[in-house]
Amino acid sequence: EADIYQTPRYLVIGTGKKITLECSQTMGHDKMYWYQQDPGMELHLIHYSYGVNSTEKGDLSSESTVSRIRTEHFPLTLESARPSHTSQYLCASSGLGRLTGGEGYTFGSGTRLTVV
Amino acid sequence: SQQGEEDPQALSIQEGENATMNCSYKTSINNLQWYRQNSGRGLVHLILIRSNEREKHSGRLRVTLDTSKKSSSLLITASRAADTASYFCATGGKRSGGSYIPTFGRGTSLIVHP
User: Fold this and answer.
1) Do residues A73 and A30 make contact, with C-beta atoms less than 8 angstroms apart?
2) Given CB atoms, is A27 within the 8 Å cutoff of chain B?
3) Which architecture does CATH list for B5-113?
4) CATH code for the domain defined by A4-94+111-115
5) Which residue among A102, A107, A109 sits closest to B31, beta carbon to beta carbon?
6) pLDDT tens-digit profile, chain A (116 residues)
7) What angle do CA A32, B98, A93 make, to 5 degrees?
8) Chains A–B, number of C-beta pairs less than 8 Å apart
9) d(Cα A84, Cα A1) in Å, to the nearest integer?
10) Could you state, in order of their start, the residue ranges of all structural domains in chain A?
11) What is d(CA A53, CA A59) in angstroms, rounded to the nearest whole number?
C-alpha cells in the first residue's frame, strides 16, 4: 500500500549526539517536506524538496539539514542535538504538478524527539 | 504571511451535535485545505477547496469558502466521539520554483463527549 513512513516514532537522546530522522514514501511523489510542531502549536515548515538533488530551507530557521538523493527518501539530520530541538517532526509529501497549486499532502505519523 | 488562523481554539460538544470551525487568512489564495490531527500523530488531509469554489461536501464534512471575507468554515455534522482531534486549515503560499506550499495555523481542538 502506498504510504509515507517515519522512523523512529519516538527518540530520546543525549545532548551533543548526531541523529537522523528517516522519512520514506512509496507514492512516487516528487515533493517532500519537513515540519516541526510543538504540542498544541502550529506546524512550521523547516525544509522542502521539489525532487532529487533539490532542497530548500523553509520558514523556520533550523539547525537541521536534509538530503534528497532518491525520490522516495528525505532524511533529516541534526549534527549535534540540543534540548531546544525537542519537538515533533512531521514529514509530508505531495505529487501533482507545480502549477496546479493545490494537491493535498500526505503526512507521516511523526517522530517525537526529546533531547536530554 | 499566508498563515490561516482557526477559530475557536477549542470546542467541546456532545456526540450528535454539529461542530463548526472557522479559518481566516490574510492574502489571496489559490486553494484552502483542511486537515485533521489525532493527538501525537501526523495530519490527515480532509478536503481541499479551490478559490473558485464556494462549498464542498465530503461525507459528514461541509466546507465553505468566502474569498471576499478571506474566510472558510468546516462543519462536521452529527459528530461522533471519534471526531475528537485537532483541525487545521492550510492556505497555499507561493514559493521559489512556482510551487504552492501550504502554511498551517494553530488549529482548533475539538472534543466530542460521548
Assistant:
1) no
2) no
3) Sandwich (2.60)
4) 2.60.40.10
5) A102
6) 668 999 999 999 999 999 999 999 998 888 999 999 998 888 999 999 999 999 999 888 789 999 999 999 999 999 999 999 999 999 999 875 443 445 678 899 999 999 99
7) 15
8) 72
9) 36
10) 4-94+111-115
11) 20
